[in-house]
Amino acid sequence: MNWHMIISVLIIVVLKTVGVTLFLLYFSQIFGSSTEIIIPTRNYGTVCPPSWQNFHQTSCFFLSTSESTWNNSRDDCAKRGSTLAIVNTPGKLVRTSEMRYLQDKADAENYFIGLRYQPAMKKWHWINKSVFNGNVTNKEQNFNCVTIGLSRTFDAASCDVPYRWICEMILK
Q1: C-alpha dihedral over 114, 142, 111, 59, to 10 degrees?
Q2: For residues 105 and 113, is the Cβ–Cβ distance under 8 A?
Q3: Residue 139: C-alpha distances to residues 72, 128, 142, 158 (Å)
Q4: DSSP symbols for 29-79
Q5: Which residue of 26, 61, 120, 147 has the lowest C-beta tally within 10 Å?
Q6: Average pLDDT estimate for 48-76
Q7: Are 87 and 129 contacting, i.e. CB atoms less than 8 angstroms apart?
Q8: What is residue 98's DSSP assignment?
Q9: pLDDT tens readout for residues 114-144
Q10: What is residue 23's predicted lDDT score, i.e. its pLDDT?
Q11: Whether the predicted pLDDT of 91 surpasses 80
């Protein structure tokens, strides 16, 4: 048996192992690490930021894991370059496939969306100022904000009670 050959192979294996280990340890330093990197989703190459979910190549949704008031939720979405979710468009009824998608994602939690009651106008409006064309449950309790989730409906809620929230970013 050729000991020189065995020792040479062992040295090569050790060097490769050390090299791969160092590469993996310093990977983020080599390529930089940023929380703002946009990565393609599985849906036809559309891009959403990390931790956002893609919907039909038209929107990205962020579902919070913490709770906050409606105003703080709106502000958080703005910081993310988005708005609280709008589940219908001006002049059209609720987009049922989008609503179903968000309700499935919300599961047993309630999430604020971008819908508020405007007492002066006595109407529900989306944060983009379009009029809401649907029904809100619990509106007789004088709540001015809306959540979706557990009940599978638009539920009036107090704007000052903390809930989770859904941000929406429209893809262009």
Answers
A1: -20
A2: no
A3: 22, 21, 6, 10
A4: HHH---TT--EE-TTTT-EE-TT-EEETTTEEEEE-SS-B-HHHHHHHHHH
A5: 120
A6: 90
A7: no
A8: H
A9: 999 998 888 999 999 988 888 888 877 889 9
A10: 64
A11: no
Burial (CB count within 10 angstroms: exposed 0-12, middle 13-18, buried 19+), residue 172: exposed
Beta bridge partners of 169: 60
Q: Is the dihedral of CA 29, 35, 41, 45 positive or negative?
A: negative
**Pairing status of strand 111-118 against strand 39-40:** unpaired
What is the per-residue pLDDT across 11-32, written as a single tens digit (0 to 9) for each?
887 777 777 666 666 654 555 5
Residues 143 and 2: their CA atoms lie apart, in Å, by 84
- Give, for 96, the enclosing helix (H) or strand (E): helix 96-106
Q: Whole-prediction pTM value?
A: 0.69
Q: How far apart are CA 83 and CA 31, in angstroms?
A: 31
DSSP secondary structure letter of residue 20: H
Smallest Cα–Cα separation from 55: which of 91, 100, 110?
100
Instruction: Please name the amino acid found at residue 163.
Output: Y
